[in-house]
Design goal:
By secondary structure, this protein is of the alpha/beta class. It contains 18 helices and 16 strands. The protein has a seven-stranded mixed β-sheet, sandwiched between helices. The chain has a six-stranded antiparallel β-sheet with strand order 6-5-4-9-8-7, covered by helices on one side. A three-stranded mixed β-sheet has the order 1-2-3.
Length: about 525
Protein backbone atom coordinates (compact mmCIF):
# COMPACT_ATOMS: atom_id res chain seq x y z
CA UNK A 1 0.00 0.00 0.00
CA UNK A 2 1.33 3.46 -0.94
CA UNK A 3 0.24 6.79 0.53
CA UNK A 4 -0.27 8.32 -2.93
CA UNK A 5 -3.97 9.36 -3.00
CA UNK A 6 -4.79 6.45 -0.69
CA UNK A 7 -8.31 6.40 0.78
CA UNK A 8 -7.71 5.53 4.44
CA UNK A 9 -11.42 5.89 5.30
CA UNK A 10 -12.42 3.36 2.62
CA UNK A 11 -9.79 0.92 3.90
CA UNK A 12 -11.08 1.23 7.47
CA UNK A 13 -14.68 0.62 6.28
CA UNK A 14 -13.54 -2.50 4.41
CA UNK A 15 -11.64 -3.65 7.52
CA UNK A 16 -14.75 -3.20 9.70
CA UNK A 17 -16.74 -5.35 7.25
CA UNK A 18 -14.13 -8.14 7.38
CA UNK A 19 -13.97 -8.06 11.18
CA UNK A 20 -17.79 -7.99 11.48
CA UNK A 21 -17.94 -11.22 9.45
CA UNK A 22 -15.85 -12.85 12.22
CA UNK A 23 -17.70 -11.16 15.10
CA UNK A 24 -21.32 -10.04 14.48
CA UNK A 25 -21.15 -7.96 17.68
CA UNK A 26 -18.28 -5.85 16.30
CA UNK A 27 -19.08 -2.08 16.84
CA UNK A 28 -20.95 -0.49 13.93
CA UNK A 29 -19.15 2.87 13.89
CA UNK A 30 -16.25 2.60 16.31
CA UNK A 31 -13.79 5.35 17.10
CA UNK A 32 -10.13 4.49 16.52
CA UNK A 33 -9.62 3.65 20.18
CA UNK A 34 -12.81 1.56 20.25
CA UNK A 35 -11.78 -0.30 17.09
CA UNK A 36 -8.32 -0.97 18.49
CA UNK A 37 -9.84 -2.31 21.74
CA UNK A 38 -12.32 -4.47 19.84
CA UNK A 39 -9.51 -6.00 17.77
CA UNK A 40 -7.51 -6.89 20.91
CA UNK A 41 -10.62 -8.38 22.49
CA UNK A 42 -11.14 -10.70 19.50
CA UNK A 43 -7.56 -11.98 19.83
CA UNK A 44 -7.89 -12.45 23.61
CA UNK A 45 -11.18 -14.30 23.16
CA UNK A 46 -9.60 -16.65 20.60
CA UNK A 47 -11.84 -15.47 17.78
CA UNK A 48 -8.71 -14.52 15.78
CA UNK A 49 -5.03 -15.15 16.18
CA UNK A 50 -2.55 -12.26 15.87
CA UNK A 51 -1.48 -13.63 12.50
CA UNK A 52 -5.06 -13.82 11.23
CA UNK A 53 -5.69 -10.25 12.41
CA UNK A 54 -2.58 -9.01 10.56
CA UNK A 55 -3.80 -10.87 7.45
CA UNK A 56 -7.18 -9.11 7.63
CA UNK A 57 -5.42 -5.75 8.00
CA UNK A 58 -3.38 -6.57 4.88
CA UNK A 59 -6.47 -7.57 2.90
CA UNK A 60 -8.39 -4.43 3.82
CA UNK A 61 -5.49 -2.10 3.03
CA UNK A 62 -4.34 -3.93 -0.09
CA UNK A 63 -0.92 -4.75 1.37
CA UNK A 64 1.39 -7.62 0.54
CA UNK A 65 1.25 -10.18 3.40
CA UNK A 66 4.41 -11.03 5.35
CA UNK A 67 5.62 -14.62 5.72
CA UNK A 68 7.24 -14.43 9.16
CA UNK A 69 9.02 -17.79 8.80
CA UNK A 70 10.78 -16.69 5.61
CA UNK A 71 11.34 -13.10 6.72
CA UNK A 72 14.94 -11.93 7.08
CA UNK A 73 16.12 -9.20 9.42
CA UNK A 74 16.19 -5.96 7.37
CA UNK A 75 19.21 -3.71 7.02
CA UNK A 76 19.38 -0.98 9.69
CA UNK A 77 17.81 2.25 8.52
CA UNK A 78 20.40 5.09 8.23
CA UNK A 79 20.79 6.84 11.59
CA UNK A 80 17.89 4.73 12.83
CA UNK A 81 15.73 6.66 15.35
CA UNK A 82 14.54 3.69 17.41
CA UNK A 83 12.58 5.92 19.80
CA UNK A 84 10.45 7.00 16.80
CA UNK A 85 9.97 3.41 15.61
CA UNK A 86 9.00 2.13 19.07
CA UNK A 87 6.62 5.02 19.72
CA UNK A 88 4.85 4.60 16.37
CA UNK A 89 4.89 0.80 16.16
CA UNK A 90 6.80 0.68 12.88
CA UNK A 91 10.09 -0.43 11.34
CA UNK A 92 11.54 0.39 7.87
CA UNK A 93 11.90 -2.78 5.84
CA UNK A 94 13.22 -1.27 2.59
CA UNK A 95 13.43 2.12 0.93
CA UNK A 96 14.07 3.80 -2.39
CA UNK A 97 13.88 7.30 -3.86
CA UNK A 98 10.08 7.33 -3.79
CA UNK A 99 9.08 5.81 -0.45
CA UNK A 100 9.95 3.90 2.70
CA UNK A 101 8.20 0.55 3.22
CA UNK A 102 7.30 0.15 6.91
CA UNK A 103 6.33 -2.93 8.86
CA UNK A 104 3.37 -1.79 11.00
CA UNK A 105 0.94 -3.29 13.52
CA UNK A 106 -1.80 -0.65 13.91
CA UNK A 107 -4.02 0.30 10.93
CA UNK A 108 -5.61 3.16 12.83
CA UNK A 109 -2.58 5.49 12.97
CA UNK A 110 -1.31 5.21 9.41
CA UNK A 111 -2.40 8.72 8.41
CA UNK A 112 -0.45 10.18 11.34
CA UNK A 113 2.59 8.03 10.50
CA UNK A 114 2.40 9.08 6.83
CA UNK A 115 2.41 12.74 7.88
CA UNK A 116 5.37 12.26 10.25
CA UNK A 117 7.40 10.37 7.63
CA UNK A 118 6.81 13.01 4.96
CA UNK A 119 7.77 15.77 7.38
CA UNK A 120 10.86 13.95 8.69
CA UNK A 121 12.29 12.25 5.59
CA UNK A 122 10.50 14.11 2.78
CA UNK A 123 9.36 10.86 1.17
CA UNK A 124 6.29 8.68 0.67
CA UNK A 125 5.24 5.58 2.61
CA UNK A 126 4.25 1.99 1.95
CA UNK A 127 3.02 -0.43 4.60
CA UNK A 128 3.02 -4.16 5.45
CA UNK A 129 1.25 -5.54 8.52
CA UNK A 130 2.86 -7.91 11.03
CA UNK A 131 2.06 -9.19 14.54
CA UNK A 132 2.95 -6.79 17.35
CA UNK A 133 5.14 -9.37 19.11
CA UNK A 134 6.97 -10.05 15.83
CA UNK A 135 7.66 -6.36 15.27
CA UNK A 136 8.85 -5.88 18.85
CA UNK A 137 11.24 -8.83 18.44
CA UNK A 138 12.65 -7.34 15.21
CA UNK A 139 13.16 -3.95 16.84
CA UNK A 140 14.94 -5.56 19.78
CA UNK A 141 17.25 -7.58 17.49
CA UNK A 142 18.12 -4.59 15.32
CA UNK A 143 18.86 -2.40 18.32
CA UNK A 144 21.13 -5.13 19.70
CA UNK A 145 22.95 -5.40 16.35
CA UNK A 146 23.38 -1.60 16.21
CA UNK A 147 24.76 -1.53 19.75
CA UNK A 148 27.17 -4.39 18.95
CA UNK A 149 28.32 -2.61 15.77
CA UNK A 150 28.89 0.63 17.67
CA UNK A 151 30.88 -1.25 20.28
CA UNK A 152 32.92 -3.00 17.57
CA UNK A 153 33.61 0.33 15.84
CA UNK A 154 34.88 1.80 19.10
CA UNK A 155 37.03 -1.29 19.69
CA UNK A 156 38.31 -1.21 16.08
CA UNK A 157 39.12 2.51 16.34
CA UNK A 158 40.93 2.00 19.63
CA UNK A 159 42.92 -0.84 18.08
CA UNK A 160 43.82 1.26 15.03
CA UNK A 161 44.90 4.15 17.25
CA UNK A 162 47.08 1.77 19.23
CA UNK A 163 48.65 0.34 16.06
CA UNK A 164 49.23 3.82 14.62
CA UNK A 165 51.09 4.84 17.76
CA UNK A 166 53.54 1.94 17.72
CA UNK A 167 57.13 3.14 17.55
CA UNK A 168 57.97 1.06 14.46
CA UNK A 169 55.00 2.52 12.53
CA UNK A 170 55.83 6.08 13.56
CA UNK A 171 59.44 5.52 12.41
CA UNK A 172 58.30 3.94 9.12
CA UNK A 173 55.93 6.79 8.23
CA UNK A 174 58.53 9.40 9.19
CA UNK A 175 61.08 7.53 7.05
CA UNK A 176 58.68 7.68 4.09
CA UNK A 177 58.35 11.45 4.54
CA UNK A 178 62.10 11.95 4.96
CA UNK A 179 63.00 9.93 1.87
CA UNK A 180 60.38 11.77 -0.16
CA UNK A 181 61.85 15.11 0.89
CA UNK A 182 65.41 13.96 0.12
CA UNK A 183 64.29 12.96 -3.38
CA UNK A 184 62.46 16.26 -3.88
CA UNK A 185 59.14 14.45 -4.37
CA UNK A 186 55.92 16.32 -5.04
CA UNK A 187 53.61 13.42 -4.10
CA UNK A 188 53.66 10.19 -2.11
CA UNK A 189 51.44 7.29 -3.24
CA UNK A 190 50.69 4.48 -0.77
CA UNK A 191 48.96 1.58 -2.51
CA UNK A 192 48.08 -1.80 -0.97
CA UNK A 193 48.24 -4.70 -3.40
CA UNK A 194 47.34 -8.37 -3.06
CA UNK A 195 50.44 -9.23 -1.01
CA UNK A 196 52.33 -6.03 -0.15
CA UNK A 197 52.13 -2.25 0.11
CA UNK A 198 53.98 -0.20 -2.49
CA UNK A 199 55.11 3.30 -1.54
CA UNK A 200 55.96 5.41 -4.57
CA UNK A 201 57.10 9.01 -4.91
CA UNK A 202 56.56 11.35 -7.83
CA UNK A 203 59.95 12.88 -8.52
CA UNK A 204 60.24 15.36 -11.38
CA UNK A 205 56.87 14.19 -12.66
CA UNK A 206 57.68 10.46 -12.71
CA UNK A 207 56.69 7.84 -10.11
CA UNK A 208 59.39 5.69 -8.55
CA UNK A 209 59.01 3.06 -5.82
CA UNK A 210 60.92 3.77 -2.60
CA UNK A 211 59.52 1.19 -0.16
CA UNK A 212 57.72 -2.14 -0.38
CA UNK A 213 56.35 -3.34 2.95
CA UNK A 214 54.16 -6.30 4.09
CA UNK A 215 50.43 -5.90 3.57
CA UNK A 216 49.84 -6.56 7.28
CA UNK A 217 51.32 -3.13 8.07
CA UNK A 218 48.90 -1.18 5.88
CA UNK A 219 46.11 -0.61 8.46
CA UNK A 220 48.65 0.87 10.88
CA UNK A 221 50.31 3.03 8.19
CA UNK A 222 46.94 4.28 6.94
CA UNK A 223 45.78 5.03 10.48
CA UNK A 224 48.98 6.93 11.29
CA UNK A 225 48.58 9.14 8.21
CA UNK A 226 44.85 9.67 8.86
CA UNK A 227 45.57 10.72 12.44
CA UNK A 228 48.13 13.25 11.19
CA UNK A 229 45.58 14.66 8.74
CA UNK A 230 42.66 14.73 11.16
CA UNK A 231 40.72 12.11 9.18
CA UNK A 232 38.40 9.41 10.50
CA UNK A 233 40.67 6.42 11.05
CA UNK A 234 37.73 4.00 11.30
CA UNK A 235 36.34 5.03 7.87
CA UNK A 236 37.75 3.16 4.88
CA UNK A 237 34.62 2.90 2.69
CA UNK A 238 34.37 6.57 1.70
CA UNK A 239 36.87 9.03 0.16
CA UNK A 240 38.40 11.48 2.64
CA UNK A 241 40.47 14.64 2.29
CA UNK A 242 42.60 16.46 4.84
CA UNK A 243 45.51 18.80 5.28
CA UNK A 244 48.20 19.05 7.93
CA UNK A 245 51.57 20.53 8.81
CA UNK A 246 54.25 18.25 10.22
CA UNK A 247 57.68 19.05 11.59
CA UNK A 248 60.55 16.86 10.39
CA UNK A 249 63.69 18.03 12.12
CA UNK A 250 64.02 21.70 11.31
CA UNK A 251 61.78 21.46 8.27
CA UNK A 252 58.03 22.11 8.28
CA UNK A 253 56.07 20.18 5.67
CA UNK A 254 52.59 21.12 4.47
CA UNK A 255 50.68 18.05 3.26
CA UNK A 256 47.37 17.50 1.50
CA UNK A 257 45.99 14.00 2.11
CA UNK A 258 43.51 12.17 -0.11
CA UNK A 259 42.13 8.65 0.41
CA UNK A 260 39.81 6.61 -1.80
CA UNK A 261 38.50 3.04 -1.36
CA UNK A 262 39.93 0.47 -3.79
CA UNK A 263 39.51 -3.30 -4.13
CA UNK A 264 42.59 -4.05 -2.02
CA UNK A 265 41.93 -1.42 0.66
CA UNK A 266 42.57 2.28 0.25
CA UNK A 267 44.76 4.33 -2.05
CA UNK A 268 46.41 7.16 -0.11
CA UNK A 269 48.05 10.09 -1.88
CA UNK A 270 49.89 12.87 -0.10
CA UNK A 271 50.70 16.11 -1.92
CA UNK A 272 53.81 17.67 -0.39
CA UNK A 273 53.83 21.45 -0.31
CA UNK A 274 57.21 22.56 0.97
CA UNK A 275 56.61 26.28 1.43
CA UNK A 276 60.27 26.98 2.22
CA UNK A 277 61.70 25.15 -0.79
CA UNK A 278 59.60 26.93 -3.44
CA UNK A 279 60.72 30.24 -4.85
CA UNK A 280 58.17 32.08 -6.97
CA UNK A 281 60.56 33.82 -9.32
CA UNK A 282 59.80 34.30 -13.01
CA UNK A 283 63.52 34.23 -13.72
CA UNK A 284 64.01 30.60 -12.64
CA UNK A 285 61.09 28.96 -14.45
CA UNK A 286 63.19 28.19 -17.50
CA UNK A 287 62.03 30.90 -19.91
CA UNK A 288 64.46 32.00 -22.56
CA UNK A 289 65.59 35.65 -22.27
CA UNK A 290 63.27 36.55 -25.16
CA UNK A 291 60.26 34.78 -23.63
CA UNK A 292 60.97 36.30 -20.21
CA UNK A 293 61.18 39.83 -21.59
CA UNK A 294 57.97 39.40 -23.61
CA UNK A 295 56.10 37.89 -20.67
CA UNK A 296 57.22 40.53 -18.17
CA UNK A 297 56.00 43.18 -20.57
CA UNK A 298 52.68 41.38 -21.05
CA UNK A 299 51.84 41.14 -17.34
CA UNK A 300 52.24 44.89 -16.91
CA UNK A 301 48.95 45.55 -18.73
CA UNK A 302 46.46 47.25 -16.37
CA UNK A 303 43.44 45.20 -17.47
CA UNK A 304 42.59 42.21 -19.61
CA UNK A 305 42.93 38.43 -19.33
CA UNK A 306 46.19 36.48 -19.36
CA UNK A 307 45.90 32.69 -19.40
CA UNK A 308 48.41 29.99 -18.52
CA UNK A 309 47.51 26.70 -20.18
CA UNK A 310 48.69 23.12 -20.15
CA UNK A 311 47.75 19.71 -18.74
CA UNK A 312 47.65 18.84 -15.04
CA UNK A 313 51.13 18.87 -13.53
CA UNK A 314 52.64 21.24 -16.09
CA UNK A 315 53.53 23.95 -13.55
CA UNK A 316 50.70 26.39 -14.26
CA UNK A 317 50.12 27.23 -10.58
CA UNK A 318 53.81 27.94 -9.98
CA UNK A 319 53.87 30.29 -12.97
CA UNK A 320 50.77 32.15 -11.78
CA UNK A 321 52.16 32.55 -8.27
CA UNK A 322 55.41 33.82 -9.77
CA UNK A 323 53.43 36.42 -11.71
CA UNK A 324 51.54 37.45 -8.57
CA UNK A 325 54.79 37.62 -6.61
CA UNK A 326 56.27 39.86 -9.31
CA UNK A 327 53.25 42.19 -9.27
CA UNK A 328 52.74 42.23 -5.50
CA UNK A 329 54.14 45.65 -4.57
CA UNK A 330 51.69 46.64 -1.78
CA UNK A 331 50.11 49.23 -4.05
CA UNK A 332 47.60 46.83 -5.62
CA UNK A 333 44.68 44.88 -4.23
CA UNK A 334 45.23 41.25 -5.29
CA UNK A 335 42.53 38.64 -4.64
CA UNK A 336 42.62 34.97 -5.59
CA UNK A 337 39.94 32.26 -5.74
CA UNK A 338 41.52 28.81 -5.79
CA UNK A 339 40.68 25.12 -5.47
CA UNK A 340 42.48 24.54 -3.19
CA UNK A 341 44.72 27.35 -1.88
CA UNK A 342 48.07 25.59 -2.21
CA UNK A 343 50.49 28.30 -1.13
CA UNK A 344 49.97 31.15 1.28
CA UNK A 345 51.48 34.44 0.17
CA UNK A 346 51.69 37.64 2.19
CA UNK A 347 49.82 40.63 0.82
CA UNK A 348 47.13 38.59 -0.94
CA UNK A 349 43.48 37.93 -0.12
CA UNK A 350 43.15 34.23 -0.90
CA UNK A 351 39.73 32.59 -1.16
CA UNK A 352 39.09 28.83 -1.11
CA UNK A 353 36.49 27.17 -3.35
CA UNK A 354 34.00 25.09 -1.35
CA UNK A 355 31.36 23.55 -3.60
CA UNK A 356 29.59 21.92 -0.62
CA UNK A 357 28.38 25.33 0.55
CA UNK A 358 27.98 26.83 -2.92
CA UNK A 359 31.31 28.65 -3.19
CA UNK A 360 32.40 27.85 -6.76
CA UNK A 361 34.83 29.67 -9.03
CA UNK A 362 31.90 31.56 -10.52
CA UNK A 363 30.27 32.61 -7.22
CA UNK A 364 33.64 33.43 -5.70
CA UNK A 365 34.64 35.53 -8.69
CA UNK A 366 31.31 37.33 -8.67
CA UNK A 367 31.94 38.34 -5.05
CA UNK A 368 35.56 39.28 -5.68
CA UNK A 369 34.75 41.91 -8.29
CA UNK A 370 32.83 43.80 -5.60
CA UNK A 371 35.96 43.98 -3.44
CA UNK A 372 37.65 46.71 -5.53
CA UNK A 373 40.55 44.52 -6.72
CA UNK A 374 43.30 45.53 -9.12
CA UNK A 375 44.39 41.97 -9.94
CA UNK A 376 42.28 38.81 -9.78
CA UNK A 377 43.65 35.26 -9.93
CA UNK A 378 41.09 32.58 -10.79
CA UNK A 379 42.46 29.08 -10.25
CA UNK A 380 40.75 27.73 -13.36
CA UNK A 381 38.09 28.72 -15.88
CA UNK A 382 35.94 25.61 -16.04
CA UNK A 383 32.62 26.77 -17.47
CA UNK A 384 30.77 29.46 -19.37
CA UNK A 385 29.60 31.26 -16.23
CA UNK A 386 33.13 31.66 -14.86
CA UNK A 387 34.43 32.70 -18.28
CA UNK A 388 31.73 35.36 -18.68
CA UNK A 389 32.40 36.88 -15.24
CA UNK A 390 36.18 36.81 -15.80
CA UNK A 391 35.84 38.53 -19.19
CA UNK A 392 33.48 41.14 -17.77
CA UNK A 393 35.99 41.84 -14.98
CA UNK A 394 38.79 42.17 -17.54
CA UNK A 395 36.76 44.60 -19.63
CA UNK A 396 35.92 46.76 -16.60
CA UNK A 397 39.44 47.58 -15.51
CA UNK A 398 40.87 44.47 -13.84
CA UNK A 399 43.84 42.27 -14.69
CA UNK A 400 42.58 38.68 -14.60
CA UNK A 401 44.98 35.74 -14.43
CA UNK A 402 43.72 32.19 -14.85
CA UNK A 403 44.34 28.73 -16.30
CA UNK A 404 42.74 26.44 -18.87
CA UNK A 405 43.37 22.81 -19.80
CA UNK A 406 44.40 23.05 -23.45
CA UNK A 407 47.28 21.55 -25.41
CA UNK A 408 48.66 24.77 -26.87
CA UNK A 409 48.28 28.55 -26.69
CA UNK A 410 45.91 28.87 -29.66
CA UNK A 411 43.75 26.15 -28.12
CA UNK A 412 42.82 28.58 -25.32
CA UNK A 413 41.01 30.79 -27.82
CA UNK A 414 38.97 27.94 -29.29
CA UNK A 415 38.27 26.57 -25.80
CA UNK A 416 36.68 29.87 -24.72
CA UNK A 417 34.63 29.97 -27.91
CA UNK A 418 33.53 26.36 -27.38
CA UNK A 419 32.29 27.38 -23.92
CA UNK A 420 29.94 29.79 -25.67
CA UNK A 421 31.79 33.07 -25.12
CA UNK A 422 31.19 35.53 -27.97
CA UNK A 423 34.06 36.06 -30.42
CA UNK A 424 34.17 39.82 -29.92
CA UNK A 425 34.41 39.39 -26.13
CA UNK A 426 37.34 36.97 -26.44
CA UNK A 427 39.16 39.23 -28.89
CA UNK A 428 38.57 42.29 -26.69
CA UNK A 429 39.48 40.78 -23.30
CA UNK A 430 42.27 38.27 -24.07
CA UNK A 431 45.76 39.77 -24.21
CA UNK A 432 48.03 36.76 -23.97
CA UNK A 433 48.30 32.99 -23.47
CA UNK A 434 51.31 31.17 -22.06
CA UNK A 435 51.35 27.45 -22.85
CA UNK A 436 53.84 25.35 -20.94
CA UNK A 437 55.15 21.90 -20.07
CA UNK A 438 57.76 20.67 -17.62
CA UNK A 439 60.77 18.66 -18.77
CA UNK A 440 63.31 16.91 -16.57
CA UNK A 441 66.80 18.37 -16.61
CA UNK A 442 69.89 16.25 -17.16
CA UNK A 443 71.58 15.44 -13.85
CA UNK A 444 74.54 17.81 -13.33
CA UNK A 445 76.55 15.10 -11.51
CA UNK A 446 76.28 12.01 -13.71
CA UNK A 447 75.25 13.98 -16.84
CA UNK A 448 72.56 11.44 -17.62
CA UNK A 449 74.87 8.45 -17.37
CA UNK A 450 73.10 7.41 -14.08
CA UNK A 451 76.40 6.48 -12.34
CA UNK A 452 78.88 8.62 -10.47
CA UNK A 453 82.65 8.68 -10.99
CA UNK A 454 83.09 5.56 -8.79
CA UNK A 455 80.72 3.59 -11.02
CA UNK A 456 77.88 3.44 -8.50
CA UNK A 457 74.29 4.58 -8.99
CA UNK A 458 74.31 8.37 -8.93
CA UNK A 459 73.01 9.50 -5.54
CA UNK A 460 72.11 12.97 -6.79
CA UNK A 461 69.50 11.72 -9.25
CA UNK A 462 68.87 8.30 -7.63
CA UNK A 463 69.95 6.64 -10.86
CA UNK A 464 67.33 8.30 -13.06
CA UNK A 465 69.76 10.43 -15.06
CA UNK A 466 67.64 13.53 -14.39
CA UNK A 467 67.50 16.01 -11.54
CA UNK A 468 65.03 18.88 -11.34
CA UNK A 469 62.72 20.27 -13.98
CA UNK A 470 62.36 23.37 -16.06
CA UNK A 471 59.61 24.72 -18.24
CA UNK A 472 59.29 24.86 -21.99
CA UNK A 473 57.02 27.64 -23.19
CA UNK A 474 54.91 29.01 -26.01
CA UNK A 475 53.78 32.62 -25.65
CA UNK A 476 50.89 33.92 -27.72
CA UNK A 477 50.43 37.68 -27.59
CA UNK A 478 47.13 38.84 -29.06
CA UNK A 479 47.75 41.63 -31.57
CA UNK A 480 45.39 43.43 -33.95
CA UNK A 481 45.62 40.82 -36.71
CA UNK A 482 44.85 38.02 -34.28
CA UNK A 483 41.92 39.98 -32.82
CA UNK A 484 40.47 40.43 -36.29
CA UNK A 485 40.95 36.72 -37.04
CA UNK A 486 39.16 35.73 -33.80
CA UNK A 487 36.30 38.11 -34.65
CA UNK A 488 35.98 36.45 -38.06
CA UNK A 489 35.88 32.99 -36.47
CA UNK A 490 39.21 31.86 -37.95
CA UNK A 491 40.18 28.23 -37.43
CA UNK A 492 42.87 27.10 -34.97
CA UNK A 493 45.31 26.43 -37.80
CA UNK A 494 44.76 29.95 -39.16
CA UNK A 495 45.34 31.48 -35.72
CA UNK A 496 48.47 29.35 -35.29
CA UNK A 497 49.81 30.48 -38.69
CA UNK A 498 49.29 34.15 -37.81
CA UNK A 499 50.94 33.75 -34.40
CA UNK A 500 54.00 31.96 -35.83
CA UNK A 501 54.30 34.52 -38.61
CA UNK A 502 54.38 37.21 -35.94
CA UNK A 503 57.23 35.49 -34.13
CA UNK A 504 55.65 33.02 -31.73
CA UNK A 505 58.11 30.28 -30.73
CA UNK A 506 56.24 26.95 -30.37
CA UNK A 507 56.61 24.52 -27.48
CA UNK A 508 58.52 22.07 -29.66
CA UNK A 509 60.90 24.79 -30.87
CA UNK A 510 61.54 26.04 -27.34
CA UNK A 511 62.08 22.44 -26.21
CA UNK A 512 64.57 21.76 -29.01
CA UNK A 513 66.53 24.84 -27.96
CA UNK A 514 66.85 23.31 -24.49
CA UNK A 515 67.90 19.97 -25.98
CA UNK A 516 70.62 21.70 -28.04
CA UNK A 517 71.74 23.58 -24.93
CA UNK A 518 72.20 20.28 -23.04
CA UNK A 519 69.48 21.10 -20.49
CA UNK A 520 67.28 18.11 -21.33
CA UNK A 521 67.14 15.21 -23.76
CA UNK A 522 65.14 14.59 -26.92
CA UNK A 523 63.50 11.56 -25.27
CA UNK A 524 62.34 13.70 -22.35
CA UNK A 525 61.04 16.41 -24.70
CA UNK A 526 59.07 13.82 -26.67
CA UNK A 527 57.63 12.38 -23.45
CA UNK A 528 56.52 15.79 -22.26
CA UNK A 529 54.94 16.86 -25.56
CA UNK A 530 53.57 13.49 -26.69
CA UNK A 531 50.02 14.82 -27.09
CA UNK A 532 50.98 17.70 -29.42
Amino acid sequence: MSDKAFDFNAARRRLRELLAERNPEYPASPSRDEARAADRAMVQAGTLTESQLAALYSEAYGCEPVDEEEFKLPEPFPDAPYDFFNANGCLPEEWDEEAITFLVVDPYELEQLTFLVRRTWKTGTRFRFVRRTFLERLLSKLQSVEEENELMEVEDENMLRSMAGEAKIVRLVNDIFTRAIELGASDIHIEPGEESVAVRCRVDGVLTEIINTPLSQFPAIASRIKLLGGLNIAESRLPQDGRTNIQLGRQELDMRISTIPILTGESIVLRLLNQEAISFDLGILGMSPTHLAQFRKLIQIPHGIILVVGPTGSGKTTTLYSVINHLNDNRKKIITVEDPVEYKMAGLCQMQVNAKIGVTFATGLRSIVRQDPDIILVGEIRDRETADIAINAALTGHLVLSTLHTNDAVGAVTRLLDMGVENFLVSSALFGVLSQRLVRKICPVCHGKMTDEAGNKCRRCNGSGYKGRCGIFELLTVDDELRAAVNHNASSSELQEIAVRHGMVTLQEDGMEKVRAGITTLEELNRSTAEL
